[in-house]
Amino acid sequence: MRLITQFFREAFDFFLQIYTNRNTLRTLSWRQFEKLYIRNFFGLLWAILDPLAFVVILYFVLGARFGGGNDEVPFIVYLLTGYIVFDFFSSTMGAVTTSIMDHAFLLKKVSFRVAILPIVTVVSNLIMHSIVLGICIIVLLFNGVYPDFFWIQTLYYLFAVMVLMVSAGWLTSSIYLFFPDIRNVVSIITRLMFFLTPIFWNINGLLPRDQFILKLNPLYYIINGYRDSLLYKTGFWDHPALMLYFWAVCLVFLIIGITVFKKLRPHFADVVA
Fold first, then answer.
1. Coil, helix or strand for 9?
2. Measuring CA to CA, which residue among 169, 160, 156 is closest to residue 253?
3. Neighbours of 161 (CB within 10 A)
4. 23 in helix, strand or coil?
5. d(C-alpha 27, C-alpha 183), whole Å
6. Which of 81, 118, 160, 272 has a C-alpha 20 to 30 A away from that of 96?
7. What is the separation of C-alpha 154 from the centre of its chain, rounded to a whole number of angstroms?
8. In whole angstroms, what is the distance from residue 48 CA to residue 183 CA?
9. If we measure between CA atoms, which residue out of 260, 273, 60 comes closest to residue 175?
10. At what angle do helices 41-66 and 116-142 cross, to 10 degrees?
11. Over the stretch 69-90, which tens digit does the pLDDT of each residue have?
12. CB-based burial of residue 81 (10 Å sphere; 0-12 exposed, 13-18 middle, 19+ buried)?
């Protein structure tokens, strides 16, 4: 009980520091986005075209095989609403893993809160994801899918995936300084998740046992949630078990991430010196 109380006290202080430095977080996030995209027009253009082009390729290659993720909607919108979330997760996890090392020059500043660096990367990538999501909405409109109340739920699922990435990011970015190969491990896991997540196929055709196993993938909750919000008019409250499971996974990553980060933080400057 004492250890639990101590952890929550430290966790509260941890998040309080992040809140106190929210202006720095906002500034660094915009600067990172500006550096990667605004100052390089083609960088912004390719960042938008790359996921969209991949969706088009998947559509022509797999359209004849899968025909539609669900008979209720065209295959292109089923595919697009799933892939843009996965692309956001995949690209962000790769970048967030190296986020502390990428800002190594800030580690020796005593007053700087290193804990915000993984969040900076997530927020910076969020800006790009918002642009791609806007294009996705245009595609939905052209395919006869129109806005309704449930579209607002996208913000909830967007927040959920950000919490997952930040929680995991505190863990992977801390380890990366001491074990750079963790980046390759993250890359392999995200590639595997691409095929284990119903991005271009429908989970309903599987046996109940297989469905249960695949739903253990936390990305399933996010991608299914995007589709429920944008395509199927289904509320997040209709999947209480999945919701509880997802947030339990986030809590586990959060506890492990904060614990590892706090243990390794005193040694960060020594490693990158």
1. helix
2. 169
3. 26
4. helix
5. 26
6. 81
7. 13
8. 24
9. 260
10. 60
11. 555 788 889 999 999 999 999 9
12. buried
Burial class (CB in 10 A: 0-12, 13-18, 19+), 60: exposed
Structure tokens at 225: 């949630």
Chain centre to alpha carbon of residue 212: 22
- pLDDT, tens digit (0-9, with 9 covering 90-100), for 232-265: 999 999 999 999 999 999 999 998 998 899 888 8
Distance of CA 122 to the CA centre of its chain: 8
Per the CB < 8 A criterion, the answer to whether 84 and 136 are in contact is yes
SS3 201: coil
Closest residue by Cα to residue 103 from 89, 121, 91: 121
Work out the number of other CB atoms within 10 angstroms of the CB of residue 31.
Answer: 13
H-helix or E-strand spanning residue 13:
helix 2-20
**Tokens encoding 59:** 């559509």
Cα 53 versus chain centre, distance: 20
Which residues are CB-contacts of 59 (< 8 A; sequence separation ≥ 6)?
A: 75, 76, 79
Token readout for 19 is 């809140």
Residues in CB range of 10: below 8 A, 6 or more apart:
258, 262
The CA distance from 196 to 213, in Å, is 10
- Residue range 172-221, pLDDT digits in tens: 999 999 999 999 999 999 999 998 898 988 888 788 888 898 999 999 99
**Has residue 227 got a pLDDT over 80?**
yes
Closest of 51, 63, 264 to residue 177, by C-alpha: 264
Q: What is the phi/psi pair of residue 111, to 5°?
A: -80, -10
End-to-end alpha-carbon separation of the chain, Å?
Answer: 39
